[in-house]
Amino acid sequence: MDKIESGKIYALNLVSQKVLLAYIDTISSRDVFNISFISRLPHRRMIEHFDLERVESYWLTKQQAEATIYPEVGEVFSTCKKIINNDVDLLIIEGIEWLISLHGFDNVHSMVMDLYDLVYGKKASIIASLANDVLDETNLNRWKLATTEWSIPNLIESDETLIEEDAPIMNEVVPSDVIEHKSSSLAYLTPILREGFSHETLRKRSLQWRRMGLDVSELDTALFSSDEDKCYDIYKKVEQKVRRAIELDNRLDLLEEQGWKSDVIKLRFRIRQLTGFNEVEKRIDEII
Asked: How far apart are the C-alpha atoms of 287 and 269, rounded to whole Å?
């Protein structure tokens, strides 16, 4: 598990939540061990970054819903205990800063020590992410004594690398005319054929598009629908919008080169929402 040993609690100095989520996506896609994740992110946001069917995920929140944990130290510990006893290999906990702000460092530190006793001698490991700069020097030293320092290995250097290294989708052959633009990071992807379409290929494509910064939330309905024909129809509609967005984004590259940076930033944001295409095209024509 990338230098992670069984029966230990590792401390991750969280600099970028995005990198942590990308790491979870990378290791879960290998499908070789069981992963659980506790986070302040709601599930509708988690699905933008990794496949929820591969990662047992819990939302740390005061809201009451399925697969949620109330932000009380005792509740978090009880859930962690259940996860550890359920043959998980790796438990990742994010949102510890919030627990400290609610209950104080001493209570959270005691929970971590109890978790250490819980995983000792078991196959499971825990990664607890915490931005070190939220602690004073004394508590930071206590935190480091209670955990083993760990950092995310250099498996992923950027979102663009992630897109390039994605495993090919079933029946998908990368065409010779795939275009990638450094300024926009949008790329044409080969359409998924009906005979190669499945929920798995749809999830992978959804992740690829979301990593480009595109709002493809319309796909959420398809991801949780059992009607595969209906799912494919939704996918095709979104794909048409994405292709239109990329076509317009390519034109924005030219405007950016001509110095229209402020306009380009605003128009790119609109494009990535997959809305207002006619207005964006009209504005581009006006500038040209």
From this structure: 17
Parse the chain into domains and list their residue ranges: 9-150, 159-287
Q: How far apart are CA 105 and CA 229, in angstroms?
A: 52
Q: Which helix (H) or strand (E) holds 128?
A: strand 125-130
Q: Tell me the β-bridge partners of 55.
A: 35
**Which residue type does 142 have?**
R
Question: Which one-letter DSSP state was computed for residue 219?
Answer: H
Residues 211-216: contacts with CB under 8 Å, at least 24 apart? 211/159, 211/162, 211/163, 212/159, 212/163, 212/185, 212/186, 212/187, 212/272, 213/185, 213/186, 213/272, 214/186, 214/242, 214/245, 214/272, 214/274, 215/272, 215/273, 215/274, 216/242, 216/274
Report the alpha-carbon distance of residue 224 to residue 243 in Å, rounded: 24
124 and 89 in contact (C-beta within 8 Å)? yes
Check pLDDT > 80 for residue 175. Answer: no
Query: Could you read off the pLDDT of 103-156 as tens digits, one per residue?
Result: 999 999 999 999 999 999 999 999 999 988 889 999 999 999 999 999 988 754
DSSP state of 6: T
Phi and psi at residue 180, to the nearest 5°: -125, 135
Q: Tell which phi-psi region holds residue 213, choosing left (phi > 0), alpha (psi between -120 and 50) or beta.
A: left
| Residue 185 Cα distances to 78, 207, 256, angstroms | 43, 14, 14
The CATH number assigned to the domain with range 9-150 reads 3.40.50.300
pTM: 0.59
How long is the chain? 288
